[in-house]
Automatic annotation (TrEMBL):
Residues 1-178 form the FAD-binding PCMH-type domain. GO terms for molecular function: catalytic activity; FAD binding. Residues 16-39 are annotated as: Disordered. It comes from Oharaeibacter diazotrophicus. This is Glycolate oxidase FAD binding subunit. The lineage of its organism: Bacteria, Pseudomonadati, Pseudomonadota, Alphaproteobacteria, Hyphomicrobiales. It comes from the Bacteria.
Length: 394
């Protein structure tokens, strides 16, 4: 296994692979290896390409090497009263991995947590990258300040590319001040459709909800609740959170009597949602991650009535379903037909056995024109086709 330390080391490994036509698979700690199609290429271990290069709290900017553990970054920004606002998963619980992973792996897979509905996706927080193309060339994209991008923003284009376009060696992220406190307004016992209506009403209200999630009864029980719960998080300074929670509870009276949870309980609940803890004890169950319009969420869940665990996030626009492992295609046909009937979206097989991920396309099949564009982009960045070929169906 190759284990480079410097950018030049990485460049040399990639250039050698390109010259010999040897496929390679960039990886950090391997916590997200279960995403996408399984591949058996020569590993390129980036765990030694590590360290926080620069952190300027006053400028809200952090630059780190790609192999830097996310846990290390979380400690550094927390000490300065800041955070990664897109709320990245800090543990691979849903995939059975103990570690938090690396910042390069996070950007490569582009995962965001419950706060995405307010703060935006991971790619919105990537300011710049240094990377090595499949040609064996070091390049830089973006910058180290918020307003420093003209033309095509390649740094955001690499987010979610799963190591198929370039090998990341350094990432610059925008960070934000951490809220002083948080509270959750909770509604109990709502049906999925009624919960989506409540979350939609809350998101449309001038109370600055930072997360909106619904847990049907089986998922709610995993967090100790006796019935289904709809969870609306508010963050900020204490007087503001108190006032907004009161207004939100009043607004939601048509949906039932609201309960209020404090900061510690809010942190516990949303850390579990962020990290996939509700799916950690049934790891043999394939896990779907479906992104659709919020109002379409209940129809997606209804398409798989025997799902073991269902969680709605992003006001209902993200549906997570752990399905029966005995289903030959993990209900792929049902799920994707429901997405199409809902007017479009994306269904990703977030977790599944290697043989399942070989039989079932893990990512939403692309329209022909978009697939052709993706292949042309791959050819430009990686003409020899040596960077993770097959991981994303090309």
């Amino acid at each position: 296994m190759e284990r480079p330390v410097t950018d030049e080391d990485v460049r040399a490994v990639v250039a050698d692979a390109a010259a010999s036509g040897t496929p390679i698979a960039p990886r950090g700690h391997g916590t997200r290896a279960g995403l996408g199609r399984p591949v058996e290429h020569r590993p390129l271990d980036l765990s030694a390409v590590t360290g926080i290069v620069a952190y300027e709290p006053a400028e809200l900017v952090l630059t780190a090497r790609a192999g830097t553990p996310l846990a290390e970054i979380a400690v550094a920004v927390d000490a300065a009263g800041q955070e990664l606002a897109f709320e990245p998963p800090l543990a691979g619980l849903a995939h059975g991995e103990a570690g938090a992973g690396t910042v390069g792996g996070l950007v490569a897979t582009a995962l965001s947590g419950p706060r995405r509905i307010r703060a935006g996706a991971l790619r919105d927080h990537v300011l710049g990258v240094t990377a090595v193309s499949g040609r064996g060339e070091i390049f830089r994209a973006g910058g180290k300040v918020v307003k420093n991008v003209t033309g095509y923003d390649l740094s955001k284009g690499l987010a979610g590319s799963f190591g198929t376009l370039a090998v990341l060696t350094e990432v610059t992220l925008k960070v934000m001040p951490k809220a002083e406190t948080a509270a959750t307004v909770l509604l109990a016992g709502l049906s999925d459709a009624r919960a989506v209506a409540a979350m939609t009403a809350a998101m449309g209200a001038p109370v600055d909800v930072s997360a909106a999630s619904h847990l049907p009864a089986p998922a709610a029980a995993r967090l100790g609740f006796p019935a289904a719960v709809t969870l609306l998080r508010l963050e900020g300074v204490a007087p503001s959170v108190e006032e907004r929670a009161g207004r939100l509870a009043g607004l939601l009276k048509p949906f039932g009597t609201a309960e209020r949870l404090g900061s510690a309980e809010t942190a516990r609940i949303f850390a579990a949602l962020r990290d996939g803890a509700l799916f950690a004890d049934n790891r043999d169950h394939p896990l779907w991650r479906v992104s659709v319009a919020p109002t379409a969420g209940p129809a997606i869940a209804a398409a798989v009535p025997d799902a073991a665990t269902v969680v709605y996030d992003w006001s209902g626009g993200l549906v997570l379903l752990a399905v029966d492992p005995a289903a030959p295609d993990a209900h792929a046909a049902r799920v994707r037909a429901a997405v199409a009937a809902a007017g479009g979206g994306h269904a990703t097989l977030l977790r599944g056995a290697p043989d399942l991920r070989l039989r079932v396309p893990p990512f939403e099949p692309q329209p022909a024109a978009l697939a052709a564009l993706a292949r042309r982009l791959k050819a430009e960045f990686d003409p020899a086709g040596i960077l993770n070929p097959g991981r994303m169906d090309f």
